[in-house]
Amino acid sequence: MSDLNEVGDRDNWICWLCDTAVDPDASVNSDRGPSVDSYSVAKTKKNVVTVERLAHRDCNTMKGKKAPVVAWSPELLVVDPSPIVATVDRLQRKGGREVIARCPSQEDADLASEWLLDRLSRYAPDLAVSTQITSGGGQFMLFLQAD
Fold it and tell me: In whole angstroms, what is the distance from residue 39 CA to residue 124 CA?
């Protein structure tokens, strides 16, 4: 397991679950204190990689009780957004591309794309992804593609 300060510095002291700041000086016993969350990713049947990310202690604890949710920003105008965690998990396992949201305008799709790539840089920093926007039927489809 990595040192808490190393993980915190690498993740810019931002909780991967709630996307808010983690106080590096808070007690690790405090609910909002820093903790390291780790999980395993199977690249192949024989190659399993352990990933460590920074989380608030209570965010990390709650994740153990239910599947983690990375919420879409309420400032974005997206329709039928896909669950980010499930989509990323599928892309990590299978590759390819998936529709992740629909937007009513090109501007909304551009904002959603920019936000999503920024958010994924913290949620799944080792996942190489890009977005594509396609117009059709009076809406704009936002695709997430594994590179």
Answer: 12
State which residues form the domain around 100.
84-146
Closest of 76, 94, 78 to residue 86, by C-alpha: 94
Assess whether 51 and 98 both reside in one domain: no
Looking up tokens 């780790």 gives 38
Residue 70 in domain: no
Query: What is the domain count for the chain?
Result: 2
Mean pLDDT in the chain?
86
Confidence at 116, pLDDT banded by 50, 70, 90: very high
User: Residue 138 gets which letter from DSSP?
Assistant: T
* Predicted structure pTM score: 0.69
C-alpha to C-alpha distance for 32 and 124, rounded to whole angstroms:
22
